[in-house]
């Protein structure tokens, strides 16, 4: 088995419920800007940010979709969610942005273990 490497940012909060999703995205962008390999895992309500038809937040809140769309410019290409999250939220993979990959819930611990650093938001 290879040595864990890279940063995994886990986002568990809905796009406009708190600032935690935005803070998680900002952390990922800063880490990537400094050359760190970064992936994002959206679990629970956090997966709502991955909806293809993302709406805007309340007045004064920035939309998260433009930030998600520019992740590739920072070489952040690993956007993940779990099959269990989709089932709980009643979502189909076809409702998500096109570049989202799905990990099986049973494989989640092994998936997370491949990263040397994990941050939760």
UniProtKB/TrEMBL annotation:
Highest taxon above the source species: Bacteria
| Protein name in the entry | DsrE family protein
Q: Which organism is it from?
A: Vreelandella aquamarina
């Amino acid at each position: 088995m290879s040595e864990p490497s890279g940063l995994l940012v886990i986002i568990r909060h809905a796009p406009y419920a708190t600032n935690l999703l935005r803070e998680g995205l900002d952390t990922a962008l800063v880490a990537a800007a400094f050359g760190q390999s970064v992936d994002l895992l959206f679990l629970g309500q956090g997966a709502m940010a991955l909806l293809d038809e993302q709406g805007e937040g309340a007045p004064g809140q920035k939309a998260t979709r433009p930030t998600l769309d520019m992740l590739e410019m920072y070489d952040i290409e690993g956007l993940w969610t779990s099959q269990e999250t989709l089932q709980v939220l009643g979502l189909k993979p076809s409702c998500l942005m096109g570049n989202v990959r799905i990990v099986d819930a049973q494989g989640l611990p092994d998936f997370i273990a491949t990263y040397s650093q994990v941050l939760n938001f």
